[in-house]
Amino acid sequence: PTTIYKGPDEINAIVDGKDWTPPEMQNKYIVRRYDFWYDGSNNFLSDCTAPDSAMMHRIDIYVLKKKDKSIIARDSVIVSRDGIQ
Predict the structure, then answer these.
(1) What are phi and psi of 29, to 5 degrees?
(2) How far apart are CA 70 and CA 68, in angstroms?
(3) Which of 19, 34, 80, 81 is deepest in the core (most CB within 10 A)?
(4) What's the CA gap between 20 and 17, in Å, rounded?
(5) Which is nearest to 13 in space by CA: 66, 61, 78?
């Protein structure tokens, strides 16, 4: 079966995704990371089964307070296939 990935606008950082928090920060924070893949026309690849075929990789990172799950920081990193962006 094909896995359909959520797009950037469909992510709920409070409930979606895996916890990437370093052990020394786990008592205060939650770190979430989301990967998005795009083709050469900048179209989101919702069924990207081969990230090597994507032309751009976007990584969104959220930092939340563990106590109330409020978002205290958010950033995006974009890496193009040639590594320039």
Answers:
(1) -135, 160
(2) 5
(3) 34
(4) 9
(5) 61
